[in-house]
Amino acid sequence: MEEPKFKKVVVAADSLSLGPSIVVAIIIGVLLGLGMKKLFGYSWLFWLGVFWGVGGAILNVYYAYKKQKKELDELANDPKYSKRRYDLSDDEEDDY
Question: What is the DSSP string of the chain?
Fold first, then answer.
């Protein structure tokens, strides 16, 4: 099966989007917290929104880690990149 033409570009862009997604998650959480505080009048709702934003940012990092680990595990199983053992004869070992 043939891979899409721009697959590598999409995968690279996805990896680069981790930083902005962390910032956006926290900003959305803060804005939700401010909105709930203004709507209901309880100041602790702001901190609940901040908590949700930070939690979303942590989830983004976790999902990026899982995805990267999966890709690296696939790469480790690739025979092209497997470790090769070079056996040295007894005479060659003495030289080192």
Answer: -PPPTTHHHHHHHHHHTHHHHHHHHHHHHHHHHHHHHHHH--THHHHHHHHHHHHHHHHHHHHHHHHHHHHHHHHHT-GGGS----PPPHHHHHH-
The residues spanned by each domain of the chain are 16-76
- Name the stretches of the chain with pLDDT < 50: 96
Distance (Å, whole) CA 69 – CA 75: 10
Q: Which two tokens stand for residue 33?
A: 């917290």
- Is 29 in contact with 45 (CB distance < 8 Å)? no
Residue 1's pLDDT is 66
Q: What is the pLDDT of residue 75?
A: 78
Model-level pTM? 0.68
